[in-house]
Amino acid sequence: MIAEDSVLLREGVQRLLADEGIETVAAVENGDDLLDAVTEHRPDLCVVDVRMPPTFTDEGLRAAIEARRHYPGLPVLVLSQYVEERYAVELLAGGASGVGYLLKERVADVKEFVDAVRRVADGGTSIDHEVITQLMVRSKKSPVDSLTPREREVLGLMAQGLSNTAIAATLVVSDGAVEKHVGNIFAKLGLEPSNSEHRRVRAVLAYLDS
After folding, report:
1. What is the pLDDT of residues 81-101, one digit of tens each?
2. Which residues carry this modification: 4-aspartylphosphate (predicted)?
3. How far, in Å, CA of 144 to CA of 208, rounded?
């Protein structure tokens, strides 16, 4: 099963695997559909992107972890442009068998990719060395250090008490761009929705603590 929001990449991976005799039972574009497809098809492997609709932060990886909670041992191969630290560690720590994490730009050989697909589906592992390196480096830093310069700028303005609209006006960008940055900040700081604590306040506290 493939979970990827880019239609070109989704179709491309599906055809590539078909050429190798590997059937795709479902190809979806968001985390909710991933969970539904896993329940319906119980695939031998899920190839999953990290960032998918609606917020393009970490929906795919979180959905994959949730699927493994429901179906322990479900093989998952993450194929993404990003190393999402918190959930990557949770995925890898949740069981060493049947997990993989590859970076799209570092997949240069079709045979190696197909080998990784088969290895993870068979219960093995396939983790890009760059993923391991980034996780090791980031584990020594504050989560705020993982933010991009623009995300740190947005968080700094949040610390001043500005709303998203005010931040957009200050940076001369759209409200949607600010919302995307804020979503990325919450994801990188590991701030999930909470009934007891406001994520903006918690993000600002993390910023001040850094």
Report:
1. 888 777 777 787 665 578 889
2. 49
3. 10
